[in-house]
Write a structure and sequence with these properties.
single chain; alpha/beta; globular
Length: about 200
């Protein structure tokens, strides 16, 4: 397991904390980031969870938490070995829809080569290696990853998932994620204490 040391955690926090987070949540308060600070021993880079871009400026470790649909991610991954994974975005630009991001890339108004360089530097610094498995949310992120990012990670297994803000119930989205990742959990019992390991 590729674990994160306390000193490495502090370095990551200083450089990337305002753009990223870790896949560990307080059961009663998804916005809480103290749970990350109190569970450094559970953080790792065996998996990395990737979105398109941060929706708005947030505080340290505030990405992917406390948003309208972030509870779905918590439900899907909390009782699996994905718990504690690093979470970040391909594009470090906020307040843009996926359509606008795609348009800016096509028109050359967004320097995608610079975004790719920044992303590669980030995940290498965090500790991602060729054994790390990638989870990518949404069609736009998938398209950009396939065209511009994938060549930098030829050995990494990638799981493409429907975006967590897509239409449908929490149950529908979570069960599709579990099906895609071969996770054998039942939605009404997703908070059980046993952890399902994904090979």
């Amino acid at each position: 397991m590729i674990m994160i040391t306390k000193s490495k955690f502090e370095e990551i926090k200083k450089i990337y904390g305002r753009f990223s987070t870790w896949a560990i949540w307080d059961e009663n308060n998804e916005s809480d980031t103290e749970i990350i600070e109190n569970n450094i021993d559970k953080l790792h880079t065996n998996w990395i969870i990737i979105g398109l871009n941060i929706s708005k400026p947030v505080g340290v470790w505030g990405n992917f938490r406390g948003g309208k649909h972030d509870r779905k991610i918590k439900t899907a991954f909390s009782n699996t070995n994905i718990l504690g994974s690093y979470m970040t975005d391909l594009i470090k630009k906020s307040e843009k829809s996926s359509t606008e991001i795609e348009k800016e890339v096509k028109q050359g108004n967004l320097d995608i080569s610079e975004q790719v360089k920044s992303f590669v530097e980030e995940v290498r610094f965090v500790g991602v290696n060729d054994k790390t498995k990638f989870i990518i949310f949404g069609d736009t992120a998938r398209n950009l990853y396939d065209e511009y990012y994938e060549r930098h990670f030829p050995e990494n297994k990638v799981y493409y998932l429907k975006h967590y803000s897509s239409r449908g119930t929490d149950k529908d989205w979570v069960e599709k994620v579990w099906d895609r990742l071969n996770i054998d959990l039942e939605f009404n019992n997703e908070q059980k204490s046993t952890t399902h390991n994904i090979v």
